Amino acid sequence: MLAFGGLCACTTMMIGPYDFTYIPVATDKFEIATWQHITSAAEPVHIYVEGDGYAFDKHGHPTRNPTPRKHFMRNLASRDSAKNVVYMARPCQYIRGENCDVADWTNGRFSSAIVDSMHSAIQTIAKGRPVILVGYSGGAMLTGLLIQKYPELNVEKWITIAGVLNHADWTEHFGDSPLDKSLNMNKLPQISQQHYIAKGDKVVPNELSYKWANSADIVVVENARHDYFPGLKLNLK
Questions:
Q1: What is the mean pLDDT of the chain?
Q2: Tens digits of per-residue pLDDT, 128-151?
Q3: Inter-axis angle of helices 138-149 and 112-126, nearest 10
Q4: What fold, for 2-221?
């Protein structure tokens, strides 16, 4: 294990679903952890993009390792019966390479470098096949930026769960520091989309979701919370 800049060059392993294969995907700046179930050369690829993970501790201080402590998105991906399903971590989750910096999971979590690296990883996986992107929490913001910046990804549908869709509004709502090293969305991509929100979500308030998205595209889930959507079934068609 090699130490650098207060972090370490290391991999935090997770036991994935039994029929998924752990495949780290190299990009220009980051190596991105993925767990893949690919069985068709032509069918669309369903890619589940993780949230912000363990970016801050309970005192609001940036952590040394943003790897998620919960497996909501991994478990959701494992229940998808499609022929091509991928669970994709965010840069520096599970794999903290030498290029990782605290900004990559704090105020720069949606930077051009992050978006470009995720685009490269998705291209490597999709190999020209259509893509359905599912983004959770901050992963919703990141997937939206990917669709806007890279229309050639051929995203057939965009699904978000408890998603942040405009981080400037979100940080302002809570009086938090702005994400000044991040890209933002001033409007949503014009593609087929659906946004699942937990009724009464305290992390991403419902009023913000309705401010950002068309009400016809929002599905309110009862008896759920930001990181808990029991029995959630996504409309992936």
A1: 93
A2: 999 999 999 999 999 999 999 999
A3: 80
A4: Rossmann fold (3.40.50)
Mean pLDDT of 56-63: 94
Residue range 146-173, pLDDT digits in tens = 999 999 999 999 999 999 999 999 999 9
Domain boundaries, the chain: 2-221
Residue pair 187/147 in contact (Cβ under 8 Å)? The answer is: no
Q: Beta 84-88 vs 31-38: how paired, if at all?
A: antiparallel
State the Cα–Cα distance between residues 128 and 167, nearest whole angstrom.
Answer: 30
